[in-house]
Automatic annotation (TrEMBL):
GO molecular function: DNA binding; polysaccharide transmembrane transporter activity; porin activity; sigma factor activity
Region named Disordered: 530-550
Annotated SLBB domain residues: 406-490
Organism: Singulisphaera acidiphila (strain ATCC BAA-1392 / DSM 18658 / VKM B-2454 / MOB10)
Pfam families associated with the record: Poly_export (PF02563), Sigma70_r2 (PF04542), Sigma70_r4_2 (PF08281), SLBB_2 (PF22461)
Span of domain RNA polymerase sigma-70 region: 37-104
Protein known as: RNA polymerase sigma factor, sigma-70 family
Domain Polysaccharide export protein N-terminal residues, every copy: 304-371
């Protein structure tokens, strides 16, 4: 009661709070905190051990060793709110070590030449247990940002809302990382030679929650051994299994070696940096200083990221009757596109290939794998199908048809100045060509690229473009890569302006001369008519007889 009411209900605390309470406090509070951690994550840890180890007793030893390692290495847990992900990795390592040790012992006992210790795939129960073993192995290799929500939702049975609360992430982040984590995990299994269908894959993930309850005896022994170890009573570890203690020591040695390798790599990187800095310093002292970074160097831009108000085209070869999926779709301000009957998909911030994979994942609720192109007939195996990753599906196509979110501007003496969309890695020459080329009045030697400085400041950088060197000599030094917000300005040649003014004046003078010559010609015509005896129009009117009056 003292622990419950004075120190707070342990079950309502986060993993980080429980771990801090276990490390900083003693007595009943620390014991209750650790017991809550075992109750919260123990079923998942035991399932991992059971999937890797065939013998339940070996799995229980690995289970004990995992939580003993938590006691010894609790201060090294960096992301304490995702403790389940950390325990999953430790359990996978401990169980893997135990499995390799057992395989080596069996090989020695049987004196067989088989390399059992290297076998990663041992089909059992029609391959289902093997799939789940590989599932845990590849899940342990995922980055923590994907592994943490998958452990919480698929292995511990939490909802997305609960996982978001435990990880302090937005709900949308949890859902998107779950989707990406599933696809990465499935791709890893494909590379391991296991090609589960979507149904089998999801069943393997969801089915993990229903396997392996913790025996009361082993849970009690584990908690008492861990509490004794934390209290500094080395003999208390003897309450647990001696095999568990051996596994703990072996895993700790492995983790120590790994950490030393990381430290050595970091020191090596620092040494290389120091040597490089010294080399640069020596060059700076000499007569040949290192040149500054060139603005013209082409950088490896990431793939085009779709943002509002881009327009994308989604086409599906086969869909539900009367519910076609084809045509252009505008990315709305909220980042979504409408799929009509099939709902909406959030695509902002994703590349085209990522959008394709996300749309296929979304359409799995409505269409079959054959309709989505996720399986194709395998010619090598008659009557069977071969899985295809969503990115390689040929039955769903996605492309950007209107690049509206990122633009630059070409201004000045070009044929068609204005706003130009960025579709990839455009350069200055590409921008001038898109604007229809230079006008005859353009100053070829006075072309500037105006680039906003990063950080949201009002400062701008003016970069000179050597057009002749780019076109005539093929020199890419000033053929800068266009970035969003750039302004490419082509100034008018002053000589061309003066010549144009002189030409305009000459045209006006010629027009005036032509008007005067025309007037002179008209007067000469009248003079010639008088000399030839013709009567001018004015005289003819005077000689006409007056009409008779009645």
């Amino acid at each position: 009661m003292h622990t419950l009411f004075c120190l707070g209900a342990a079950g309502q605390l986060t993993d980080g709070q429980l771990l801090a309470r276990f490390m900083e406090r003693g007595g009943e509070a620390a014991d209750a905190a650790f017991e809550t951690l075992v109750e919260r994550h123990g079923p998942m840890v035991l399932r991992v051990c059971l999937r890797v180890l065939d013998d339940p007793h070996d799995a229980q030893d690995a289970f004990q060793a995992t939580f003993l390692i938590l006691v010894r290495r609790s201060s090294s847990v960096r992301r304490r709110d995702s403790l389940g992900s950390w325990l999953h990795g430790v359990a996978l390592r401990v169980a893997g070590n135990a499995r390799r040790k057992n395989l080596r012992r069996r090989r020695y006992e049987r004196r067989s030449a088989e390399r059992a210790a290297e076998v990663d795939v041992c089909p059992d129960e029609g391959g289902r247990l093997d799939l789940k073993r590989l599932l845990h192995e590849e899940l342990g290799r995922l980055p923590d940002r994907y592994r943490a929500p998958m452990v919480l939702c698929y292995l511990e049975g939490h909802t997305c809302e609960e996982a978001a609360h435990r990880l302090s992430w937005p709900l949308g982040t949890v859902k998107s990382r779950l989707a990406r984590g599933r696809e990465r995990l499935r791709g890893r299994l494909l590379r391991r030679g296991v090609a589960p269908t979507v149904g089998t894959f999801m069943a393997a993930l969801a089915g993990e929650r229903a396997v392996g309850a913790i025996p009361v005896a082993i849970e009690d022994v584990t908690i008492r051994a861990a509490i004794g170890l934390a209290a500094g009573r080395g003999g208390a570890v003897e309450v647990g299994s001696s095999v568990a203690t051996e596994l703990m020591e072996g895993a700790l040695r492995t983790m120590l070696v790994t950490s030393r390798k990381v430290i050595a790599a970091a020191l090596l990187a620092v040494g290389v940096a120091v040597v490089g800095t010294g080399s640069l310093t020596q060059r700076a002292v000499g007569d040949d200083p290192a040149p500054p970074p060139r603005e013209s160097e082409m950088i490896a831009l990431p793939l085009y990221v779709v943002e509002p108000p881009d327009m994308i085209r989604v086409d599906l070869h086969e869909s539900l009757p009367g519910r076609p999926i084809r045509g252009d779709r505008l990315v709305r301000p909220d980042g979504r596109i409408s799929m009509g009957y099939y709902g909406q998909v959030y695509v902002a911030g994703l590349t085209v290939s990522e959008i394709k994979e996300k749309i296929i994942l979304h359409l799995r609720k409505y269409l079959t794998e054959e309709q989505l192109g996720l399986v194709i007939p395998d010619s090598a195996r008659s009557g069977r199908s071969r899985p295809v990753s969503p990115a390689d599906s040929t039955r769903v196509s996605v492309e950007v048809v209107a690049f509206n979110s990122k633009a630059y501007y070409v201004l000045g003496d070009v044929a068609t100045p204005g706003r130009m969309p960025i579709t990839g890695s455009e350069t200055v020459l590409d921008g001038l060509n898109c604007a229809g080329g230079l006008l005859p009045s353009a100053a070829v030697s006075n072309i500037r690229l105006v680039r906003p400085e990063p950080g949201g400041s009002n400062l701008e950088k003016f970069l000179k473009v050597d057009y002749r060197a780019i076109v005539e000599n093929g020199d890419p030094a000033t053929n800068y890569q266009i970035r969003p917000g750039d302004r490419l300005i082509v100034y008018r040649d002053p000589k061309s302006r003066l010549m144009q003014e002189q030409e305009t004046k000459a045209q006006e003078t010629n027009a005036m001369i032509e008007r005067r010559l025309s007037a002179v010609e008209q007067r000469l015509d009248r003079v010639i008519e008088l000399l030839e005896g013709r009567t001018p129009p004015s005289s003819a009117k005077e000689s006409e007889p007056e009409p008779e009056t009645p």
